[in-house]
Amino acid sequence: METLPNCPECNSDYTYEDGSLLVCPECAHEWSPFAEAESTDAEKIIRDANGTPLKDGDAVTVIKDLKVKGSSSTLKIGTKVKSIRLVDGDHDIDCKIDGFGAMKLKSEFVKKA
């Protein structure tokens, strides 16, 4: 009998196959067994709003006025951000902005400067 991998979400060992997907009955997470192999082989490429690949240390410019959560101020269009750091997650850019401090931005709201 073939041993199936544990669920990546809840680590349950009761996973089962449903067509080409693996399913966890405890948390209802579905995933492809081939996606795991692809994600470990290829590094995720983060792109700006224009599709240009970004890397650590790049300078970017904000392309849209952004409301800052927990503050009454907004980050204005055209604000230049230097020395970005790419991180995993929904907000994939970690940076420091003069006048605002440390912040996380989404790559879809910036363009490479």
Automatic annotation (TrEMBL):
InterPro entries: YjdM, YjdM_C, YjdM_N. It holds the Pfam family Zn_Ribbon_YjdM. It comes from the Bacteria. Residues 46-113 form the Protein YjdM C-terminal domain. Residues 3-32 form the Protein YjdM N-terminal domain. Belongs to the YjdM family. This is Protein PhnA.
